[in-house]
């Protein structure tokens, strides 16, 4: 059989065709490769080499015998560099060379006992069988394909296969001529290249930066996924386009075209960075801030072959940086300049004022009793009030002036260029007037005042710190002068500020050291002269300064947050002493205690009061709580609930300093008030001022109509007593009857006090003590 096959091979090679056998020359093979669309070329080269060898040997010698020619053809078959085989139409191996045996690992004898199906990978068998059927049917003359053989040792061997069918003179299939090229090395290289490319692709698409490459002409050759997103161009659309079209950048400030770093990298053959503030104009016209760098790409010979751009979106980071810079210089609540920014502006203002011989002014503002708002209405309401105040301050200033919030309830206004100190005074008056109007916060009217201190450059300081300290000191002086006013700094104010700070420091430990005591001032029935009650008044027994009256430290206690614990102590001590007097045999009488706004608004006020009454054993009807009009007018709904709860407990209620606040008289009918206390400022002037006298008469009449007792504070003379008696005022309190007394002296006052004397139809109390 082998000889017959060899002779057939020789005949086919020499004649070029045998009957209907198709040509196996390069033209047929090449045509088949064109149809297949994928030919490695090695099979063609090996086939051509075999033919060329035969042709060369034939042409370079005398005509040879068929036997010699057959031997040469057999040698070309057996020693070809690629695998070659003849396969029967049923798939049996008829003849194969050593190259093919080496590819599959079987010997020639082993292969002759097998078919091509036996060593074909199962997944490729259907494809190969279909092509063989097409060859046998004459539908194709040659086919080429990549397939896998299963090596004798079990591993797969990728090969490139080229098969042609040889037929006899009658067209019957004789055998297939098969050329096999081992493409393991190529496949490994391709897989390695693919893996490398895939790693590069995944890496480039996974990083947060955009990557874009160009050729030497500046045309785009590649974009990763991030670059596609940022530019708005897909890789397919961008490839081949000029870089300036895909990567359009502008100077962020001038909006003029910016120099492209890729062009600089190509020109200078080095890595270059992009100028700061550059923006990328996307395909849709939107802009994004970017930062990037560009570097040249080199080929194997080290020559520049293109450039790579690496860039990322910094829009958010720039916005964040701007926001952080803004937050670093502005107040988080009001968005006003903070201490840092106003110090910078004041530094500039002082420099300009020094250069031009002008003045600069600093107004230090503090909201009076703002802590009461936070403690009674909550911090949310306090924040809204601060926003309202900030808005009004901004409405007062010009564009060249600065309103700053220093923190808490402190504001600062900078007037950078004034001619006279009166300019600052006029501005302060404008602020006081503007802030005197009620603030509508969530449907509730809040009344607040401001204390203002004014510091001037160059009079009150030569630098920022000195001027601000002077204004701060003047502000404290404004508070000491009744609040709701402005004060210019004066040198002697420093002494008073030091004294205030010392008082605050001592006050913080006074309660623990037991330095407080209570004095009691009698209340007298003006018709009968009878003793009907007393008011508890706090005194501070300072170890160095002696007795300190409440007007000297209560406001400080309010400002530094000590008023609630001090107020609770006063309430407990007054109840304890009142019960002790009763236990000692004195007639029971109501004791009045002043309640601060902070204490009244405290969430535990009612519970604390119940505990104190239970602890001391005092009957609730023997306790009277005095509240100012300003306390009652804050959050009327909440105030009403608390007052009704107090009345339900049996406690008596009085409005202290009536006539000095902003109350609406309609509240007197809504709140369960027992007593109205006329402020002593009206009593002191009622004999000299008809308006004050009219106010007192009106209050007495109103109290009578509302069935509320009226007591006049600050009665110091017999003339004042007669005036009040003539207008049927119920009760009086003041030095005319008695100074405030300590507990022991008050008990003596009660025991030794002479009975009331009569005067006509009226009884008049004698002044004692």
Please describe what this structure looks like.
By secondary structure, the chain is an alpha+beta fold. 46% of the residues lie in helices and 24% in strands. The protein has an 8-stranded mixed β-barrel with strand order 20-21-23-24-25-26-27-28, surrounded by 4 helices. α19 crosses α20 and α22 runs parallel beside α24.
Question: What's a concise summary of this model?
Answer:
The chain has 769 residues and is an alpha+beta fold.
Beta-strand residue percentage: 15-25%
Shape: elongated
Radius of gyration: 54 Å
Oligomer: single chain
Gap between N and C termini = 154 Å
| Number of strand elements | 31
Mean pLDDT: 84
The parts where pLDDT drops under 50 for at least 5 residues are 1-61, 755-769
Q: How many DSSP helices?
A: 31
């Amino acid at each position: 059989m082998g000889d017959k096959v060899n002779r057939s091979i020789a005949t086919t090679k020499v004649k070029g065709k045998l009957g209907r056998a198709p040509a196996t020359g390069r033209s047929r093979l090449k045509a088949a490769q064109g149809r297949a669309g994928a030919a490695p070329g090695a099979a063609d080269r090996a086939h051509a080499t075999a033919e060329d060898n035969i042709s060369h040997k034939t042409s370079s010698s005398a005509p040879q015998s068929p036997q010699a020619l057959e031997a040469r053809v057999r040698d070309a078959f057996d020693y070809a560099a690629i695998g070659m085989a003849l396969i029967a139409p049923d798939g049996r191996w008829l003849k194969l060379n050593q190259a093919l045996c080496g590819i599959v690992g079987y010997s020639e004898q082993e292969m002759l006992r097998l078919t091509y199906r036996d060593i074909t990978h199962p997944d490729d068998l259907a494809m190969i069988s279909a092509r063989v059927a097409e060859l046998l049917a004459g539908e194709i003359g040659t086919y080429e394909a990549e397939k896998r053989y299963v090596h004798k040792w079990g591993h797969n061997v990728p090969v490139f296969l080229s098969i042609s069918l040889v037929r006899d003179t009658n067209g019957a299939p004789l055998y297939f001529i098969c050329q096999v090229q081992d493409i393991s090395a190529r496949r490994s290289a391709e897989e390695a290249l693919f893996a490398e490319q895939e790693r590069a692709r995944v890496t480039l698409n996974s990083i947060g930066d955009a990557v874009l490459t160009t050729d030497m002409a500046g045309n785009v050759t590649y974009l990763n996924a991030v670059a596609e997103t940022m530019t708005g161009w897909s890789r397919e659309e961008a490839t081949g386009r000029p870089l300036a079209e895909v990567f359009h950048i502008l100077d962020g400030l001038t909006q003029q075209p910016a120099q492209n770093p890729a062009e600089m990298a190509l020109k200078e053959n080095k890595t270059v960075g992009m100028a700061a503030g550059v923006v990328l104009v996307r395909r849709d016209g939107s802009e994004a801030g970017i930062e990037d760098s560009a570097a040249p790409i080199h080929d194997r010979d080290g020559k520049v072959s293109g450039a790579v751009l690496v860039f990322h979106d910094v829009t958010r980071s720039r916005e964040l940086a701007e926001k952080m810079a803004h937050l670093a210089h502005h107040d988080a609540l009001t968005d006003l300049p903070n201490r840092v920014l106003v110090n910078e502006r004041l530094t500039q203002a002082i420099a300009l004022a020094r250069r031009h011989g002008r003045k600069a002014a600093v107004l230090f503002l503090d909201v009076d009793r703002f802590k009461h708002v936070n403690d009674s209405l909550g911090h949310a309401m306090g924040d809204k009030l601060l926003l309202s105040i900030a808005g009004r301050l901004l409405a007062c200033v010009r564009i060249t002036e600065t309103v700053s919030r220093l923190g808490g309830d402190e504001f600062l206004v900078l007037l950078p260029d004034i001619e006279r100190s009166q300019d600052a005074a006029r501005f302060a008056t404008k602020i006081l007037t503007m802030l005197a109007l009620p603030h509508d916060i969530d449907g509730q009217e809040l009344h607040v005042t401001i204390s203002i201190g004014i510091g001037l450059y160059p009079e009150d300081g030569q630098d920022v710190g000195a001027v601000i300290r002077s204004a701060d000191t003047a502000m404290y002086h404004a508070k000491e002068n009744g609040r709701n006013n402005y004060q210019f700094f004066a040198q002697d104010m420093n002494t008073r500020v030091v004294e205030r700070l010392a008082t605050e420091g001592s006050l913080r430990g006074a309660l623990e050291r037991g330095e407080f005591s209570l004095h009691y001032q009698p209340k007298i029935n003006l018709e009968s002269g009878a003793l009907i009650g007393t008011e508890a008044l706090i005194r501070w027994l300072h170890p160095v300064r002696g007795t300190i009256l409440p007007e000297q430290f209560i406001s400080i206690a309010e400002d530094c947050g000590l008023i609630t614990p001090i107020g609770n102590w006063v309430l407990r001590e007054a109840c304890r002493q009142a019960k002790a007097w009763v236990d000692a045999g004195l007639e029971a009488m109501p004791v009045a205690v002043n309640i601060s706004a902070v204490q009244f608004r405290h969430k535990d006020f009612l519970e604390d009061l119940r505990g104190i009454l239970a602890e001391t054993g005092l009957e609730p009807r023997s306790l009277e709580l005095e509240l100012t009009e300003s306390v009652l007018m804050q959050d009327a709904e909440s105030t009403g609930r608390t007052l009704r709860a107090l009345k339900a407990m049996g406690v008596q209620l009085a409005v202290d300093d009536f006539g000095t606040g902003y109350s609406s008289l309609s509240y007197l009918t809504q709140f369960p008030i027992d007593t109205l206390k006329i402020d002593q400022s009206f009593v002191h002037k009622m004999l000299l001022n008809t308006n004050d006298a009219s106010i007192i008469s009106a209050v007495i009449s109103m109290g009578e109509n509302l069935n509320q007792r009226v007591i006049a504070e600050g009665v110091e003379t017999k003339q004042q007593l007669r005036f009040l008696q003539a207008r049927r005022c119920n009760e009086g309190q003041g030095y005319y009857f008695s100074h405030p007394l300590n507990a022991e002296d008050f008990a003596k006052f009660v025991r030794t006090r002479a009975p009331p004397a009569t005067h006509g139809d009226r009884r008049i109390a004698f002044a004692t003590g």
